[in-house]
Amino acid sequence: MNALSESNVKDMSLAPSGHLKIDWVKEHMPVLNRIRERFEQEKPFAGLKVSICLHLEAKTAYLAKVIQAGGAEVTITGSNPLSTQDDVAAALVEDGIRVFAKYQIAPDEYKANLIKTLETRPDLIIDDGGEMVTILHGERPDLLPQIRGGAEETTTGIIRLKALEKEGKLQLPMVAVNDAFCKHLFDNRYGTGQSVFDGINRATNLVVAGKTVVVVGYGWCGKGVAMRAKGLGAKVIVTEIDAIKAVEAHMDGFEVMPMIEAAKHGDYFITVTGNRDVIRKEHFAVMKDGAILSNAGHFNVEVNVVELAEASTSRRVVRKDIEEYVMADGRKLYLLAEGRLVNLAAGDGHPAEIMDMTFALQAVGLEYVSKNYQNIGPKVLNVPYELDEMVARYKLEALGIQIDKLTEEQKAYLDSWVE
Ligand SMILES: NC(=O)c1ccc[n+]([C@@H]2O[C@H](COP(=O)([O-])OP(=O)(O)OC[C@H]3O[C@@H](n4cnc5c(N)ncnc54)[C@H](O)[C@@H]3O)[C@@H](O)[C@H]2O)c1
Ligand SMILES: N[C@@H](CCSC[C@H]1O[C@@H](n2cnc3c(=O)[nH]cnc32)[C@H](O)[C@@H]1O)C(=O)O
To answer: Start and end of every S-adenosyl-L-homocysteine hydrolase NAD binding domain (predicted)?
Structure first.
């Protein structure tokens, strides 16, 4: 493979800055480093091709290099048109990885890149949000047969895989990385909690303390975002459609109300539902002048951007990643990063120490599917608990934290129904 002639990136002269970014995150990903060392010895992916669709930034680039160190020929594309970092993409090409990704590309080119990544005829895939799986099970089933299986990164992707499985149409074993404890407990909660404010604060350069933040959806991501909003000094309102999650938000100390009420109070809105139209025209109609709208859930459909445009009389970009929409009554509403994932489009995504665990799970999950695909068959499977626990153990070791062990008496006590 000739990565340079076969890739499609913005500008190869950006590579030095990309290498620096990758080197920085590598220093903060001890669990993945440990897996890389084993992969270098054992070469679990020798002779195999791996296609990856993930947010193409430095941590993802390092995962791609770890898979390559395991013997694979790696091809990568981005999982969002605004999250690709062109310098990182160029650095990967220099490292011998085929890359089809550019920052801020049109939807057609974005999709063409996904298809090119699959046309390399991979044996294994790493997907984010079911982007590649949708193409494979829709318009390009011809590319399916040689694929052993893969791993899926996020909540929404797993919902889609399970829908395919339920209809009896899923053709591949896919590991649900998001459902591993060491993924959603840390990545969705602490990762999203921190990186959402990284993105919002970089984009706006405005204060959060004293403002009202409306968190839409109190799942794993919503809990993290609400927690960090409170820590920054905001008054936090949560909206939900699930009664249990709503009670949880209430007990955690947040105000809970329907969106039509919350819409009147919010200075910042952050959607993290994985659903569509959770903020729409009736909500825009009652928002305060200057309200800031952002999304950190899957896809740019959580805030109904089409209805926002229809309700406005004019719009313009007022700052990088901020679009101002002027409403008919003169109020101004501000949309961050086109309603796409604000933490990745306006920030650098989750912290390296968090993606360390997520991507360690991706690496060992992919290895597991590669070795066992014939016995697994087409289905959505969990990361085996031993691998999940191993990632936690490696993380504790890297942090220098020790924990207790059960004594024999304690084991017997916990196993018994008599005592
Ligand atoms: N930005 C990131 O880096 C990042 C990280 C992880 C996950 N995600 C994405 O974020 C989304 C949420 O992930 P999660 O793990 O928190 O999922 P989750 O299922 O734990 O939580 C989603 C919550 O949204 C609620 N909800 C659904 N429709 C709603 C509505 N109309 N109004 C209010 N609440 C509603 C659900 O009841 C649920 O509690 C997914 O699309 C996921 O793929 C993004
Ligand atoms: N294609 C979708 C992707 C949703 S991504 C959500 C996933 O991004 C992942 N993520 C968050 N930060 C980073 C990062 O910095 N690098 C790579 N992936 C990240 C995170 O694990 C989460 O499950 C879209 O554009 O809307």
So the answer is: 188-349
In a domain, 218, yes or no: yes
**Ligand number nearest to the C-alpha of 29:** 2
| CA 372 to centroid of ligand 2, rounded, Å | 27
Find, among 197, 90, 79, the residue nearest to 132 by Cα. Answer: 79
| Ligand 1, atom 8: closest residue by C-alpha | 297
Question: What is the rounded CA–CA span in Å between residue 51 and residue 148?
Answer: 12
Beta strands in 12-102 (DSSP E): 49-53, 73-77, 98-100
- In the reported structure, the alpha carbon of residue 259 is separated from the centroid of ligand 1 by a whole-number distance in angstroms of 15
Atom index in ligand 2 nearest the CA of residue 358 equals: 21
- Of 326, 345, 364, the residue at which a domain comes to its end is 345
Q: Is 296 annotated as a binding residue?
A: yes
Give the position, in ligand 1's atom list, of the atom nearest the Cα of 296.
1
Its domain, for residue 102, covers 3-183+351-399
Ligand 1 atom having least distance to the Cα of 242: 37
Same domain for 33 and 150? yes
Whether the Cβ atoms of residue 204 and residue 322 lie closer than 8 Å to each other: yes
CB atoms inside a 10 Å sphere around CB 250: 14
In a domain, 11, yes or no: yes
Instruction: Kindly report, residue by residue over 49-77, the tens digit of the pLDDT.
Output: 999 999 999 999 999 999 999 999 999 99
Beta strands in 86-181 (DSSP E): 98-100, 124-127, 149-152, 174-176
- Is 70 annotated for ligand binding? no
Same domain, 341 and 262: yes
Residue 410 lies in a domain: no
Q: Whose CA is nearest to atom 20 of ligand 1?
A: 219
pTM (2 d.p.): 0.97
Q: 173 and 42, same structural domain?
A: yes
> Using the 8-state DSSP alphabet, how is residue 185 labeled?
I
